[in-house]
Structures are given as C-alpha cells and as structure tokens.
Amino acid sequence: METRENVVVPLGYGKFVRSDKIIALEPIEDERGPGRRTRVYIEQMGNPIIASRTENSILANMVETPKEIMEATAALELLQDISDDLQQVGPMLRKSIKKEAQLDLDKIEKRIDEILKHEIEFEPRH
Predict the structure, then answer these.
(1) What digits encode the pLDDT tens for the residues 44-88?
(2) Structural domain boundaries enclosing 50
(3) Strands (DSSP E) along the chain, which ranges?
(4) Cα angle 67, 4, 21; round to 5
(5) Residue 33 — very low, low, confident or very high, per pLDDT cuts 50/70/90?
(6) Number of domains in the chain
(7) Backbone angles phi, psi at 49, to 5 degrees
(8) How far apart (Å, rounded) are the C-alpha atoms in residues 22 and 43?
C-alpha cells in the first residue's frame, strides 16, 4: 500500500490531517461501544489524536487500496466483533434463543470461527 500524498483525511469531531503525516493508527478496544474510535499518531505530535472513525475508514482515505480489499477487511472485522459478542452469551440464553427464534448461536459461532481461521491461515507473511 502506498500513502496518497497531500490528501486531507477526516478524523471526525471536526479534525483533519494530511495523509502523509499519519504514522500510526491504533484502534481503541476498551469501552469502544457502537461508535468506533481510533488513536491517530501524527508526525511531530507527542500525543495521539482521538478519531471518531475506524482505523479502516481512515486507512481507506490514506491509501490507494482496491475497494474490494477494504470491504473484505471490514467484513472480517465485523465477524470478529460478532464472535467476541457471541462469547458473552451464556448457555441458558443460547438455549432460549434457539428455542424461541430458531437461531443456533453455537452453529453461527462455529462458522464464524472457521471463516476467521481460514483467513488467518492464508494471510500473506511479511
């Protein structure tokens, strides 16, 4: 991936930065809630800026990456988030959901894990 130069990247909260000045993106995982947030490290700034956008959406503005790759990455992130959330559902609630809604969370979780495992196995090595 190559960073597009002289492109202004919106970070949310009315903040903008030049794409070639961003040196690192760090997703805020703890208490992230429904609004995705990211720490954005910028050249010659001691502290990161907190962005109200995901690291993928910021990265999409920064680089020249095919749309399909960005969409696939976002889909895999969504699957990981769903998997993390499913792990919080206890056995009694799973049984109730399966009975009431005919939704088998165990089967869904297993399929997501298979997809994510497959992605990890074929990830290019650097």
Answers:
(1) 999 999 898 888 888 888 876 667 777 888 888 899 999 999 999
(2) 1-65
(3) 8-12, 15-18, 22-27, 38-42, 49-51
(4) 125
(5) low
(6) 2
(7) -95, 140
(8) 6
Is the pTM value of this prediction over 0.85? Answer: no
At 28, the amino acid letter reads I
CB-count exposure of residue 6 (10 Å: 0-12, 13-18, 19+)? exposed
Q: Which residue has the tokens 């699957």?
A: 79
For residues 72 and 111, membership in a common domain is answered with yes
The structure tokens listed for 58 are 């910021």
Instruction: State whether 57 and 70 are in the same domain.
Output: no
**DSSP line for 84-113:** HHHTTS-HHHHHHHHHHH---HHHHHHHHH
Task: Verify that 82 and 108 share a domain, yes or no.
Answer: yes
Tokens of 16: 């903008």
Residue 125's pLDDT band (cuts 50, 70, 90)? very low
Chain centre to alpha carbon of residue 20? 21
- Contacting residues for 108 by C-beta, under 8 A, at least 6 apart: 82, 86
